[in-house]
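User: I'm new to structure prediction. If I give you an amino acid sequence, what do you actually give back? Let's try with this one:
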Amino acid sequence: QVASAVRSGGIGNAIPAPAQAPHPVRTSGPTLEKPGDVGVGRQVPAVDYVTIDGIKGRLGDSGELKGMVVAMTSSTCPVSRRYSPSLARLEKTLSDRDIGLILVNPFASEKDEEIRQSIAEFRFASPYVHDGKKTFATALGARTTTEVFLIDSHRTLIYRGAIDDQYGVDYNLAAPRVNYLLDAVDAMLAGARPEFGATSPPGCELDIAPKTGTPTDLTWNRDISRILQQNCVDCHHDDGIAPFALEDFVEVDDRAKVIRRVVEEGTMPPWSAAPPTDGGPTPWANDRSLSDSDKADLLTWLESKERPLGDPADAPAAREFPKGGWLHGTPDAEFTFDKPVRIKAEGKMPYVNLVVPTNLTEDKWIQGFEILPGAREVVHHVIVFAVDPENPGERFSEVGGYFALYVPGTSAEMFPPGFAKRLPAGAKLRFQMHYTPNGKATEDLTRIGFHFATEPPKYEVKVTSVPNTRIAIPAGADDHQETAERPAPTDLTILGFLPHLHLRGKAFRYEVIGPDG
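Assistant: Good question. You get back a string of structure tokens that encode the predicted 3D arrangement of the chain. For your 517 residues, that looks like this:
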């Protein structure tokens, strides 16, 4: 018998915007496009610009240069950040071939100070335009924060799209397989047409098209800011774990197209459980999904003609967040690595496994835990396993069950009264660290903190698995089902579920079978 318990495109004069699907689909990398459909071969406008240092320029006034690359970029878009080292190397490579480079940041919400920090960090020497009004981006019909444009000395567009195929949305390669931009440069300098004249540019979508939606009575100050406060800003605040904040109008207006995509996809807010089939209330205490009404209002406002700001007097009180410390106060004990882990700037990293002794002289009952990454921007997830020295043969893997878990947005867990986990005396903690390089080399020193129960619990909390280690998916199968089962040795109270599948997985279904079948 098992009981269930819940816990707490562009409008440039000369470059047509490509046709776009009304519901953008998440892709794994750049896809080839028909060059003529996206303006390749046309003359680009002679855009006037002013760099972040106040230097005036005009696109096309390139002197003796043989061409120019205009690269969209951003200090906060994750895909742009990953491409920053590539842009720094590209700057030198292009210069050696008498090709200029202009960097264009189209986000008004990014502050000059953080842009200058990025310029210094990657040692960019090329003109950097903070295009807050999106004039430059609009003239070129830029689609994302990673799109690059190769223009010859006559302002003819030779190539547009991705730099290469190394990075995308939820997609990283250790190294590029195809260097679209540099291949196009080589072809142009040889007087030939590039083999690939255009690709899609995976990145943060830009909202530059004229707003053609219907008017709405919804306003930012009265309605939309509250929806985001309730559903998004726990992560998307200044110094939060998300790559950018969504606390003010400009931040949201800049990223309206990105927000619309992830909300329509259902990837944000991050929540994957299916809603109740009977239309009733959610059974999940930690349900992060948008309500139907909040989702409808948010999308209506994003798609409206004006995105009304409304009366500032209607704005909610600002949320306050801890500045980098423990969410549940100072723990009774904390553990970390003996030295920081070095995270490289680019590519992929294998999982890093580190064993940390607790040196506990007696068993401890854990009422709650919190995992605090040192470099949150590169920590994808953390799984902590605890091994009892009296049972060294225990599985030291996910199949055997983990002790604590961190994923962005879920860093702490406090168990209900009467529930606790046992941490044996002398236990060792193994940290399984998954890092995702973000363009900047850094170091991480992740910590775990434990809050001890004041008395032994009524129920011991354990994590167990219902594993299937022999999954075999036939080639080409679109819908393939795998099953696994595990008998319950005693009456159980289920506190939560953690389905785990990577990109090949589509769905999980749990079935609880009682004693009567």
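You can read the tokens as a compact description of the fold. Here is one thing that stands out. Residues 220-314 form one domain.
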